[in-house]
């Protein structure tokens, strides 16, 4: 249910509406636009159907939300959300690129790559400290030591850092060292983990599960927003199809579909979707042309010795060349890089 307030609603009337909603055992979620304030109501809506909320001063109308995702949808918020990650704004006019190695391997490597991706034009540093691997015998990441390295390189380069959280027990470490928490494809429907990051105000990058529909993807984001954290960026990273020539199939359709259904920003991961470095640049260019708000790209200065996903990692020079192309496409669309 959505409650739309009148433009002239006073602060006292606004607070009274919130009190009435809470008195019914429901949870209000507020979205303030340029012309209207909208209150999304979370919880069993039967109580609202028998309460004359339209009679409360300041209320313009009460509307049901037909889609299963209440807070991520355009019905709740018509204007695009912009997520601020330590001064980097995702979802606005600028296209944002996050770049770095798949995994943090050693201090020198991370320092070098951090400097190189910044010189190439990246606005954020990515890197895995905890790695979810298909095989239990593969490199699992450096853990807390990796987070500390990311934090240090972030301070040295000025690039905010994004890295993946696997276990809710590690959340305090992420709140201390990380600027944006990534929830990976394998954890997209780890609902308890989604709830916990929803209780923080730390920005969240939510990746689409490789077997998830767009509706399931948006409902996963709904778990985070329903706990009060609206700082969510979606990430399309490819879905599993019958095709075996690439690692996954990049669903470019998801970009305009999600733009129509949701106010949340969406970026694209062309590295994991293709699995082959030679395909990363074409898919990245296509994603920006389709309207994506940014990219997350794997970059390594020596991919052949990378401990994780070397075949899909761009070398720094290739990344810098890609950034020039992305800038050209962004400008054609009236955006900046």
* Main sheet overview: 8 strands, parallel
Proper CATH architecture of the largest domain: Alpha-Beta Barrel
Q: Topology as H/E string?
A: EHEEHEEEEHEHEHEHEHEHEHHEH
- Mean pLDDT, nearest integer? 91
Given helix and strand content, the structural type is: alpha/beta
Return residue spans where pLDDT drops below 50 for at least 5 consecutive residues: none
Give the fraction of residues assigned to helices: 25-40%
| The CATH top-level class label of the largest domain | Alpha Beta
Number of helices: 11
Count of separate structural domains:
2
Q: Which strand-content bin applies to the residues?
A: 15-25%
Q: Order of strands across the biggest sheet?
A: 13-12-11-10-9-8-7-14
Model description:
The protein is of the alpha/beta class. The chain has two domains: 2-63, 2-Layer Sandwich (Alpha-Beta Plaits), CATH 3.30.70.1140; 83-332, Aldolase class I (TIM Barrel, Alpha-Beta Barrel). It is 34% helix and 18% strand. Helix 3 packs parallel to helix 4 and helix 3 packs parallel to helix 11. It is elongated and about 65 Å long. The two termini are 38 Å apart.
